[in-house]
Write a structure and sequence with these properties.
Blueprint (H helix, E strand, L loop, with lengths): L1 H23 L1 E2 L1 H8 L3 H9 L13 E2 H15 L4 H24 L7 H16 L8 H27 L5
Antiparallel strand pairs: 1-2
Helix pairs in contact: 2-3, 2-4, 4-5, 6-7
């Protein structure tokens, strides 16, 4: 029983800290290639072509953002796109993600309410129940993981707000 409690506590810490861990994560070309399921030769070739950039810290290590791009390029290649077309598609996807992140950053602090977050989790759950997340292949796993982590984060946020705000406020 104590092992299960330790596991649960560690899970909460990892969920809370994963953003910081991911932001600091750096892997060598060989390690990044293995994680992204490409050959080191492919990764180096894509880097030389300018499709993927190593970390900005001056080393030849790859951060999580570069690895995400590598995975997306690989997935586009698996769908039959040429390398150039795959790179264009991924660049467009990344631009869309950046625009969405900027939009969320610019939102009023109260615009992202717990009710809206719960609604987003409900939509993800409905899509999962319909099998829509399964059809997106590798992205389905990450979408499910995001839905689970988002649900847990909302639960934690509600608990923290209850501790901070007096009842009836």
């Amino acid at each position: 029983m104590a092992e299960a409690q330790t596991h649960d506590a560690l899970t909460q810490v990892l969920i809370a800290n994963d953003g910081e861990v991911l932001a600091r994560l750096r892997l060598s070309a060989a390690e990044a290639a293995r994680v992204c399921n490409v050959t080191p030769r492919q990764l180096i070739y894509w880097t030389k072509k300018g499709l993927v950039k190593p970390s900005s810290n001056g080393d030849h290590d790859y951060d999580v953002f570069a690895m995400e791009k590598v995975i997306r390029i690989r997935q586009a290649l698996e769908k039959g796109h040429s390398l150039e077309k795959a790179a264009q598609l991924v660049q467009r996807e990344m631009g869309t993600l950046q625009a969405e992140a900027k939009r969320l950053d610019e939102m009023a602090p109260d615009a992202l309410t717990i009710a809206r977050l719960r609604k987003a989790v409900a939509v993800l759950a409905r899509l999962d129940a319909q099998g829509a997340l399964e059809n997106s292949q590798a992205n389905g796993d990450s979408a499910k993981a995001v839905a689970l982590r988002l649900g847990r984060a909302i639960d934690e946020l509600e608990l923290l707000l209850r501790e901070v705000q007096p009842v009836g406020a």
